[in-house]
Automatic annotation (TrEMBL):
<dbReference type="InterPro" id="IPR003609">
    <property type="entry name" value="Pan_app"/>
</dbReference>
<protein>
    <recommendedName>
        <fullName>Non-specific serine/threonine protein kinase</fullName>
    </recommendedName>
</protein>
<feature type="signal peptide">
    <location>
        <begin position="1"/>
        <end position="24"/>
    </location>
</feature>
<dbReference type="Pfam" id="PF01453">
    <property type="entry name" value="B_lectin"/>
</dbReference>
<dbReference type="InterPro" id="IPR036426">
    <property type="entry name" value="Bulb-type_lectin_dom_sf"/>
</dbReference>
<feature type="domain" description="Apple">
    <location>
        <begin position="344"/>
        <end position="424"/>
    </location>
</feature>
<feature type="domain" description="Bulb-type lectin">
    <location>
        <begin position="25"/>
        <end position="149"/>
    </location>
</feature>
<dbReference type="Pfam" id="PF08276">
    <property type="entry name" value="PAN_2"/>
</dbReference>
<keyword id="KW-1015">Disulfide bond</keyword>
<keyword id="KW-0675">Receptor</keyword>
<keyword id="KW-0597">Phosphoprotein</keyword>
<dbReference type="GO" id="GO:0048544">
    <property type="term" value="P:recognition of pollen"/>
</dbReference>
<keyword id="KW-0325">Glycoprotein</keyword>
<dbReference type="InterPro" id="IPR000858">
    <property type="entry name" value="S_locus_glycoprot_dom"/>
</dbReference>
<dbReference type="Pfam" id="PF00954">
    <property type="entry name" value="S_locus_glycop"/>
</dbReference>
<dbReference type="InterPro" id="IPR001480">
    <property type="entry name" value="Bulb-type_lectin_dom"/>
</dbReference>
<dbReference type="InterPro" id="IPR035446">
    <property type="entry name" value="SLSG/EP1"/>
</dbReference>
Length: 428
């Protein structure tokens, strides 16, 4: 009975709003609706929102796309897993500040912005910002820190400039990219890209069944260890923030007339694009994974991948293939083992330079230690397998220790960093 009354209220609001609707605005006020066939445009005309159908599909979704780009590239979808089969949809803002996608034919709510928040707001307004961010705020308060809700916190498959990709450690909010199912179907696909904060934080690209596909590596002060180092360019700046409240990276455009976006494709490739005005098409700047050595753990435990040699996998110094026969046939699934018997005495560390650091999910870290203190800390524990600086700028700082088999190491040459691997360690 209660749900029926809610549906009736929504339908009544929709009927009233069609008389008050103005398509020239970038904002929706309480009890106004944006019906299918009408659109809101951001203040300078960069983004547009409304209902759309993907190519080769008749299903209707509410989304946001670039208006100034001829392809109308979609960057966010609300009801991605609850499409409409006709044009009876409408976006409505309720009096208590909740955005809903409504099927006006039967009153069913297909999507709602109200996930976990309990805050109330007196004069709510939903506004499409020039950044492509759809926000709910108080009509008289434009401070981003006071937004009740924003689409940037709930991305689809696309990260736009200004969006924080990462985790709020206070609220637990983790901004996750999830791929479209296909290029014609925006429903949730098989791949996700998210921050993992177990051990020292890193970003993981996951496939179906929670299988690791690609790992960014930890932030080292200059770049994520497993991604191309962001050189100075005329398109964007890269910022990484790591404190007690949040961990995230964000891209800021240098020139507002240039458009750039990061997308997780339906095939599981994390891509960064820039719009080319001359060709009127998106230019690919980066791909992750970029090559076979970017595939997670391809050489398995204590193996190292080098795309410049054939075969790409080899064992770290002081290690050998667990199965020489399998290794000779390019089956690296058994990984590598130590050449000498395991014990806990200190026979030293082997220094590797220019590598992507191993998986950090079972690591320990201290941001204030220096490298000498880090080595001493590792020597105290028979379970410690390797150590490295966290920040490679200047003389280096911070301590990162590994306590499990070292997984997913890649030779990155000058863009990599140093790690010190113990060759006489045991797990007890």
């Amino acid at each position: 009975m209660a749900r029926s009354l809610i549906k009736l209220a929504f339908l009544s609001c929709f009927c009233l709003s069609t008389l008050l609707f103005s398509h020239a605005s970038d904002s929706i006020l309480p009890n106004q609706s944006l019906p299918d066939g009408k659109f809101f445009v951001s203040s300078n005309g960069t983004f547009e929102m409304g209902f759309f159908s993907p190519d080769n599909s008749k299903k209707r979704f509410f989304g946001i796309w670039y208006k100034v780009i001829s392809t109308g590239t979609v960057v966010w979808v609300a009801n991605r897993d609850s499409p409409l089969n006709d044009t009876s949809g409408a976006l409505t803002l309720t009096q208590d500040g909740n955005l809903i996608v409504l099927n006006t034919a039967n009153g069913n709510v297909l999507w709602s912005s109200r996930f976990n928040y309990t805050s109330s707001i007196r004069n709510p307004v939903a506004q499409l910002l020039e950044s492509g961010n759809l926000v709910i705020r108080d009509e008289n308060d434009e401070n981003p820190g006071n937004f009740l809700w924003q689409s940037f916190d709930h991305p689809s498959d696309t990260a736009l400039p200004g969006m924080k990709m990462g985790k709020n450690l206070v609220t637990g909010l983790n901004r996750v990219l999830r791929s479209w199912k296909t290029s014609d179907d925006p429903s949730t696909g098989n791949y996700s890209f998210l921050l993992d904060s177990h051990g020292f934080p890193q970003f993981l690209l996951m496939g179906s069944g929670s299988v690791e596909r690609f790992r960014s590596g930890p932030w080292n002060g200059k770049a994520l260890s497993g991604t191309p180092r962001p050189n100075e360019n005329m398109i964007y700046t890269f910022e990484f923030v790591f404190n007690q409240e949040e961990i995230y990276y964000t891209i800021q455009l240098i020139n507002s007339s240039i458009f750039s976006r990061q997308v997780l494709s339906p095939t599981g490739i994390l891509q960064r694009f820039s719009w080319n005005y001359r060709t009127q098409a998106w230019t690919t700047l980066t791909n992750s994974p970029a090559d076979i050595c970017d595939n997670y753990g391809i050489c398995h435990g204590y193996g190292i991948c080098d795309i410049s040699i054939n075969p790409v996998c080899s064992c770290l110094d002081k290690f050998k293939p667990q199965s020489e026969k399998d290794w000779a046939s390019a089956d690296w699934s058994g990984g590598c083992v130590r050449k000498t018997p395991l014990n806990c005495k200190n026979d030293g560390f082997v220094k590797y330079s220019g590598v992507k650091l191993p998986d950090t999910r079972n690591s320990w870290y201290n941001l204030s230690m220096n490298l000498e203190e880090c080595e001493k800390m590792c020597l105290k524990d028979c379970y410690c397998m390797a150590y490295a600086n966290i920040d490679i700028r200047g003389k280096g700082s911070g301590c990162l220790l590994w306590f499990e088999d070292l997984m997913d190491i890649k030779n990155r040459g000058e863009s990599g960093q140093d790690i010190y691997i113990s060759f006489q360690r045991t797990k007890g």
